[in-house]
Design brief:
about 325 residues, mainly alpha
């Protein structure tokens, strides 16, 4: 009873923070808009400039950021469960990097200007290519760590090595192009919501929503997988089969998020860990809380990245990393 009450209180507080973060993102910018004008615009009574700023630029960017945050935090929850390690994250073990490799190759050969000339077909193909890249990285990590039995700690260490190798490949590949291509890819791989549109929302929303609901429905299985493999098997769970299913969900979520927002690291690391501290280890609660926390973090980080050095925009992934790296070091020291 106390646990449910705490979960409700935390959910309400985070819901308010999400709403405030959305208002900040809608109003704060080179063209500032008051809360009253935001309400008028959303109700169809805004000026032409307000309609363009809110409905065509800021609102789709906010929604993309929210779904990216939900996808990365849920992927982090899954990976921390199946690896039984708080340090696991799709950005750390190489899944995001695998998606980034496929996306960078696709972008390089499809168009010279990813942000303004990515056609409708390419917009739909890009997440598919990113998921393929993430899947390849995940398969390499899984098979290398499965020799002589699955060892979660070995899986994490191999993932860190694969991540380093894939990021080195991205750097090498982009150096082969011109300075302009390298700068564009560098901004994208650092994580950026620049160029987000309603087309992105239409793709991300159904994918993230379906996988997120599926993961929530598997919350009892994931609770059991948090225990040792021996206990999980004793309780009737096919550990290897469920681990593959959950890893597939993490790959899809991380791949789609990386396709449209670049390689945003640490979001899937810090959000689940904070959520677990707030509401406990039961997945039914902390997956939702983790999604809310990541939404607040990415929206505030995006608002700061857009306006801190305006008119220059820095990648949102850099802002997230400024908070994520110290937290990662803290977790390493605890381990």
């Amino acid at each position: 009873m106390m646990r449910n009450r705490k979960y409700i209180y935390v959910s309400i507080c985070l819901g308010i923070l999400v709403l405030l973060a959305i208002i900040v993102c809608l109003s704060w910018g080179s063209y500032e808009i008051s809360v009253r004008d935001i309400i008028k615009t959303l109700s169809g009574q805004g000026s032409k400039m307000q309609n363009i700023s809110i409905l065509q630029i800021r609102l789709p960017r906010i929604l993309v950021g929210m779904f990216v945050g939900i996808a990365l935090s849920t992927a982090g929850c899954i990976l921390q469960t199946i690896m039984k390690n708080d340090l696991a994250d799709s950005g750390i073990i190489g899944i995001n990097a695998g998606a980034a490799v496929a996306a960078v190759i696709f972008i390089s050969y499809q168009t010279v200007d990813y942000y303004s000339e990515l056609g409708k077909l390419s917009t739909y193909v890009l997440p598919f290519m990113a998921v393929i890249g993430a899947t390849c990285a995940a398969l390499i990590i899984y098979f290398l760590s499965s020799r002589k039995g699955m060892k979660p700690r070995r899986m994490l260490l191999i993932g860190i090595g694969v991540n380093a190798g894939l990021n080195a490949f991205i750097t090498f590949f982009t150096f082969r192009g011109g300075v302009g291509d390298y700068n564009r890819v560098l901004v994208w791989t650092a994580g950026s919501l620049w160029g987000s549109s309603w087309a992105y929302v239409k793709i991300l929303l159904p994918i993230v929503a379906v996988v997120f609901i599926y993961v929530l429905l598997k919350h009892k299985t994931m609770d059991v997988m948090n225990l040792t493999d021996e206990i999980a098997v004793g309780l009737g769970i096919n550990v290897e089969k469920e681990r593959k299913k959950m890893l597939s969900c993490a790959v899809i979520l991380a791949g789609c998020a990386t396709a449209f927002a670049g390689n945003i690291g640490f979001l899937g690391l810090i959000s689940p860990h904070i959520a677990r501290k707030l509401v406990g280890p039961y997945h039914k609660n902390f997956i939702i809380i983790s999604a809310l926390i990541s939404t607040v973090i990415i929206l505030i980080a995006d608002a700061v990245s857009r306006n801190l050095f305006s008119p220059i925009e820095i990648p949102v992934g850099i802002i997230v990393s400024i908070f994520g790296v110290p937290y990662f070091i803290y977790l390493l020291m605890k381990e």
